[in-house]
Amino acid sequence: MMSPLRMVEGLGGLLNRFSSEFGATLRFTAHAFGLGLLGLVKPRLYDRGELARQIESMGARSLPLVLFVAFLIGAGVMAQTQPDFERRGIPEVAPGVVAITVTRFIAPVITALLFAGRVGASLSAEIGAMKLGEELDALKTMAVNPLAWVAAPRLLAVGLALAGLTVIFQVVAMLGALAMGALSFDVPLDLFVESVRRFIVLWDALFAVIKAFLFALAIGAVACHKGFGVEGGSAELGKATMSAVVLCQGAIIAIDLFCAMVNNALANHGLVPQAPV
To answer: What are the helix (H) ranges across 59-151?
Structure first.
């Protein structure tokens, strides 16, 4: 049986490793994101064509999955919400509840989780392979900053692609909810629209996009940082890829909770718009 002292030592070591890794990732994020923004006004810092290619690769190729999942989730939430409100005699409330749930929480979080599984793994594996193939070292010998040339455009691309996909998810999920309400529960279009209008304001959609961009920074930074840190061989590359996906998903949930608490605090002080009661 492990002694209490050993347990405390183990916990301390774990916290120390976590704080060290967290600090390194934050520094990496700030540096890469700063270089990405700087590259928008200094064309030679990185290839802008690579930025466009990454947006297409991450966003356009993820679009079919996002459309499919968004429609099914919107319909599913409506199917599980509407009957309960009908039994309580307030069926007109259900579409609004679905709208605020989808807009604030489901759309940004589910899109980010899907994105982390596909793009996070891909980024980590791609950059890790470049590291093992000494391509990053070759860039250094040519006086090219690997962080600017490789990580910066990918980090920006993740942010732009995920923000756009989140907006698409919101719209398609609500179309799925509308279809389910009309086909299964005979919810009129005007009642659906009026209920949604009563429950959400523009800020809810904008706040979801802000969250999506924060999720994107976490996904891009963790995946790129793990890729840059690969040492050894293909086995280490696989471990780094798996670790990147798990850390990205954990970061998404943690950031969402933090954002919800911040939004609630702002709302309590009347600093952000809210739907009228």
So the answer is: 63-87, 94-101, 107-115, 121-132, 135-141, 146
